[in-house]
Design a protein that fits this description.
Strand content: over 45%
Order of helices and strands: EEEEEEEEEEE
Largest sheet: 7 strands, mixed
Helix content: under 10%
Distance between the termini: 39 Å
Shape: globular
Number of helices: 0
């Protein structure tokens, strides 16, 4: 398994941008498919985006397409979520997750390791 630590959250005005980072340690990072999820108060955790082990395949939730971009740097054991054109409804705790399978899946239960989360607040 890998140990994950997110950073980069904060308070931003609507229309602004944030870049979340996720640092991995432990097992061979390049073996893992990575995902970003979010959870708002009173709501279930939902898939935001995912990236394959090589970075060659990405998948996004419909509500972030065209606004968010996920990327990874296997040499640095990092995965990133660039968030642009942020909306108040993007307010949530954002989590980084890793899974040993090859497919970029939207199911939280398919991911083996999770970070502690980073809070994103978008003000209107």
């Amino acid at each position: 398994q890998v140990h994950l630590v997110e950073s980069g959250g904060g308070l931003v005005q609507a229309g602004g941008s944030l870049r979340l980072s996720c640092a991995a340690s432990g097992d061979t990072f390049s073996r893992y498919t990575m995902g970003w999820f979010r959870q708002a108060p009173g709501k279930e955790r939902e898939f935001v985006g995912g990236i394959s082990w090589s970075g060659g395949s990405t998948r996004y939730a419909d509500f972030v397409k065209g606004r968010f971009t996920i990327s990874r740097d296997n040499a640095k054991k990092m995965v990133y979520l660039q968030m642009n054109s942020l909306k108040p409804e993007d307010t949530a705790v954002y989590y980084c997750a890793a899974r040993s399978g090859a497919m970029v899946t939207v199911l939280p239960s398919a991911f083996d390791s999770w970070g502690q989360g980073t809070q994103v607040i978008v003000s209107s």
